[in-house]
Amino acid sequence: MSETALKGSLASSPSSSPPPPTFSRLGSRSKVISKQYDAALALASTADSSVDDLCKIIWGQRRFVIASLLDKRKSRGRRSWIGNHGWFLAELRKDNTSSGDIWCCRLCDDKGAPRFFNAQSTSSASAHLFKAHGITETFEAGSSGDSSVIDLQRNASKKRPASSSFLLPRAKMARIRELSVGYIVDSNLPFTTFESTYLQELFRQLDSDLYAQVPWGRTATKKDLEDILVSKKAAVKEELNNTVTQIHLSFDLWTSPNRLAFISIFGHFIDRRHLYQSRLLAFKRQIGSHAGENIAYTIRNVVRDWGIDGAQIMSAVVALIGQRRV
Questions:
Q1: 3-state class percentages of the chain: helix first, strand second, coil last, to nearest 5
Q2: Helix (H, G, I), strand (E, B), or coil: what is residue 250?
Q3: What is the Cα–Cα distance from 102 to 146, expressed in whole angstroms?
Q4: Model pTM greater than 0.85?
Q5: 243 and which of 57, 69, 179, 269 could share a cystine (Cβ 3.0–4.6 Å)?
Q6: Nearest to 276 by CA among 264, 286, 266, 285
Q7: What does the alpha-carbon distance between residue 73 and residue 209 come to, in Å, rounded to a whole number?
Q8: Treating both helix axes as pointing N-terminal to C-terminal, what angle do 170-186 and 218-240 enclose, rounded to 10 degrees?
């Protein structure tokens, strides 16, 4: 039988079997991931399947299978919000073993250019959704139900380029963090204040983008306080180095209800604008009795710490010691 006759016989035979899945998958190389995913899901067996039985999703030189079909346990464990905007796939090596789970962005796939991210954690995928599509977990959760004015504004703002419109300026970020630390210090609150479930939900409702970009944990708040202390102390030192008068010191002693002694030390001066200024230089434990020698020792250490010329205050310290001895 000639080759032509053989082909005609196969084409006209009513009992010819459909082409094996391998051939049907060859035609899906050019399809977007969504169509291949739907086809792979439709062909999947309800029983546990090996990787060889699963329909392959192909993009370029990369091959995938649906992660939940490869391991049924993962279908119960995947609860991340990024699953609403993409698919969890298992990437295959040449020997058909899995090299790890991958998350594929559905929004990018809709444009014909799917993006793939490691699914071991959601940080990379979350950052991509935020930067490329203006989507956050909070925005998604708040978009259901009745829309508020803010929700409507945010929906409208999604039409703008998302690369920079959602990113807060550094100056604003720094100001917000400084205000949050000021609130904690002024109200004598613990560093865990902003970890409150109710406060965090309040921040999400007010501005989800702001909430997502500002760290609110105790560790970040403590570090912010330390950084602010260093920067503000440097600013005060600059003022002390540029006075038009000598720096005059005053102090006050206080004993707490549990019998602990404290001392506050202030510096008073006229600045370059010829304005009177007063700065708190120290508020610390006063060791020992309220004797002149102990107070003078504390003041001397504070003066050294601030780099103030000791000669400016020696007369005041000597007078203080003399008054205490009388």
A1: 50, 15, 35
A2: strand
A3: 34
A4: no
A5: 269
A6: 266
A7: 34
A8: 90
User: Are β-strands 57-59 and 62-66 bridged in parallel, bridged antiparallel, or unpaired?
Assistant: antiparallel
CA distances from 270 to 188, 228, 252, 265, 267 (A): 31, 25, 21, 17, 10
- Please report, as a single letter, which amino acid is at residue 313: I
Token code pair at residue 213: 């970009």
Residue type present at position 234: A
- Phi, psi values for residue 29, rounded to 5°: -60, -35
Q: Express each pLDDT in 273-303 by its tens digit.
A: 999 999 999 999 998 877 778 888 888 889 8
Q: Class assignment of domain 243-318? A: alpha beta
Do the strands 98-105 and 116-118 form a parallel or antiparallel pair, or are they unpaired?
antiparallel
Which pLDDT tens digit goes with each residue over 154-173? 444 444 333 334 677 878 88
Task: Tell me the residue length of the chain.
Answer: 326
Kindly list the distances between the CA atom of residue 286 and the CA atoms of 260, 265, 267, 326, in Å, as whole numbers in the listed order. 8, 11, 18, 21
Residue numbers in the chain where pLDDT is lower than 50: 1-29, 76-77, 141-165, 326
**Do 1 and 10 touch, CB atoms closer than 8 A?**
no
CB count within 10 Å of CB 48 equals 10
Q: Residue 153: CA atoms inside 13 Å, Cβ hemisphere, count?
A: 8
Cα atoms found within 13 Å of the Cα of residue 303, Cβ hemisphere only: 20
